[in-house]
Structure formats: structure tokens, C-alpha cells
Amino acid sequence: MRKKAETRNVAITSLENSVLELYGLDQNAVESLSSTNLGDLVIINVTLKPDYPPCPRCGHEHPNVCNYVDKTITHSILHNCRCQINYHARRYKCPVCNRTWYEFNPFVFKKQRISVSTVVCVLEEMRDPAVTFTSVAKRYNLSPTTVQHIFDDHVQIPKATTLPRVLQLDETYSFKSGTSVYVCMLLDYDTQTAVDLLPSRKKQDLIDFFSSFPLEERQKVRFIAADMYETYRVVCKKFFPDAIYACDRFHVMQEFNRRLTEVRIRTMKGTLKGSDEYYLLKHQNHLLGIKPNAKKRIKNPDPYSKKKKDIWVNVFDPNGERTYNAHFKTWLNEYELRELLLSISDDLTEAYEMRNTLSEFFRNGTKADAADRLQVILADLNRSQVKELNAFGQTVVNWFREIVNSFEIVKTEYVVDKKNGKARRKDHRLTSSMIENRNKLVKQIKNNANGYTNWKRFRNRVLYVLNRPAFRLEPFEKEDKGK
Fold this sequence. Notes:
This protein is α+β, with helices and mostly antiparallel strands. It is built from 16 helices and 17 strands.
């Protein structure tokens, strides 16, 4: 049951004063201001002082006040309750040409019923990838459709007109259309901003996009990083023949890990379910993906130590801490479990050692020796009796030049060591690691909203979150559907 309305007309409360501050209104420009509290609804009644603007038609400088029209404006700046402005709008009339018009309305945009402050708050909220149209609507006491209309009216990001020096390409499963289930992200490595978002990674869509750029603009692209998707390579060679195209090392290792998994599963199928071998291959397979020199963080075992921070220990330390293993009914550390796992199959051991060789190649290789070292690795793959390694060797043959190009240095910076205060040089290789991070945000936007059906809105939302461009305060003109 609603409380009895409490109305104040004389003293300006803190809520009423905040209204003046939000709209930059001088207290002297307000003729009357009052607020009414109805429990779950706050109503603010406002009337402005007349300014008698000249007639917009004939320019007569002494118009008359024709009448007043009450306008109801949604002003949802209060999250704990609904807020409404009752604006007593003054209407003028020219005594010469009889033209009538409203006084300037500082609260809303033209032909709108939601306050400017509410629109700004909604648009700022939509920069967060974790929020959805529905969550913002609940927070500001609006409907989800209204929030969608606000976003569509003020955020319309045009197609890209420039290309970066270092271009990254990757796809992610985020939007399902009639022709594709992937969207293609194009990222600027230097600025770490999205160049554009395409509705698919199909060849024709990529050709249509890059064809819109003149030759002078396409010649600015010097480096391109992507995964082992043949369409990317074909299209990039056509439009960027002078650019260095690299296959990202992350995707090369990802492809090899698939081959390693195939060896593990093939080996596991040859063991008896419930046996020690089956248990190791099924439940301890994560040990195959850890580098031999990897470390992990553990709590300081010395309770009397003054160092409260965690310490790093070698994962595969033969004398490392042991934990009780319920399957073997004994105490084992990760080094011992890994040795038991590798002793099951020579094929598995060879594939695991090759993985470590590839990791060391990408970690310590240089542009000068990358081609020679990769030739040695390729020879070992071809000599192997493991069919999965032979298949990966064919992949290396197909992408040999692109893998070597991943050692190209695209950026050099000097960083100061916090321990000794000395500056050291840090070279950045050609990689697409940054775009993988952006793809996570794209998936987050899609997952939180349980999917999008409007491609234009989805593209605007993704680019709005990733690039954080300024929104247009005045709403865009709506398209004429009759055309």
C-alpha cells in the first residue's frame, strides 16, 4: 500500500538540488520545483522561467505565452526506486505570424520521453561486457526493448576506413547467421583495438571487406598474424602481397597437442579399463601438457617464516612433495606420476619429447636460426614411426614459411627491471595472442545475453565494448523503411 504523498514547494531538497546539478540549470532559471515521494516512485515537478525566444519563422522578438503542456519524463538515476519528472512545458505563440513552439527542453532529446541523464547512464553501463540489455533495464527501471532502442539510437559504429601496420585475424564462435556460425575479428596490434568485426570468415566476405580499401591503404599493412586457416592465407596474399604473413605459435602448439591427444587416446584404447595404465592415461593426462621446467605456486611450508608470500617450486622435482594417491594407495609426487605415465608407451614418450622440443624451439629460437632449427624438427617428424607425428610433419611442410615468420620482431621496447633498476631491451614477436584475449570478451558478451539475433546490434555492441568509442549524444536519424 502506497504511503501518503509528501509534497514540498518551498525548500529545495538534496534530490531537487541534484536535478539542478545534473542538467546544469541555474536555480534562478527555475520558476518552481517540487518533489513528491510515493514510496516506490519519486515525482519531480519542474517549471522553468520564461525566456521569450524570438519567433523561429519571422523573428519577432516579443512572443506571447500560449499555454502549458505537461510532459512526463522517465528519469531513472535512482536505482532503489523509480523516478519521474513532470515538466510543465511552456508553449509560445507569435502575435505576428501565429507560429507556436515549445520552449527549450533541457531534460530530453527531441521527441523522447527518457531524460538525457538516464540515456547517458545507460550508454556508459553498456561498455561493460558483463552487463546485458536486461540487467541494465532492471537497474534503471526501463524495459529491455527501451534499452535496446537507446543503444541503437546513439551507437552506430561505421565500417573501418583505415588498416593498421600489424593486422591480426582470428575467428570465434559467437553469432549464428544463415550462412555461418563464426565471426571474424580484425585487430590492430599496435593500438590493441578492433579494426572491424565481420559476420563470417568465408572467403567472399573477406574479399568484399578488403576490396573496399584502396591500394595505398592496403600497402600500409606490413605484418599479418593468424592461425592455420587456408582462406586467410589465400586472401591475404591477394590483397597484401608484400606483407609478412605469420602463423601464430600458439596455434602451432595447439595443433600438435591435438596430435599428442590422438596418441594418448589410441594408447588408452589398448589398455584394460580400470587398470593402472588406463587410470594414468585417463586421469593424469594433464601431466603431458606441462613443460619439464614448469613451476607452480604453493604455500610457504615453514609456519615460522617471516615470508608470508607463496613460493614457487619445480613441478617435476624428483624430491618434490608427495600427496596420497587413492588409486595406487601410496604417496606419489607429480614427477613419479609422469614417469609412470610415459613408461606405458614408447609412442607416447616420443610424442611428449617432441612437444618439449617444439616448446623449446619457440621459446629460444631466433629469426636467424628459426628456419634451420625447424628443418631439424621436420626431419625428426618424418623419420618417426608414429603416424600422428608424420601427419603433423605434413602440417609443418604446408606452413613452414609462416611458422618461421612468427619470429619476426614487430615491436621493441625498453623496460626497467624492478630488482636492479636497469633498463633492458624487450622484443615482441609477431603473434596473435592479443586477439585471443579479445575473443574471450566477444564470447562473454554473447554468453551473457544468451545469444544475439540482430547482427548490426551485435557488431556495434562488440566494437563499443572493445574500442570504447564516444557515443553520439543526439540520437541518429532513423532509416526510412519505405525506401
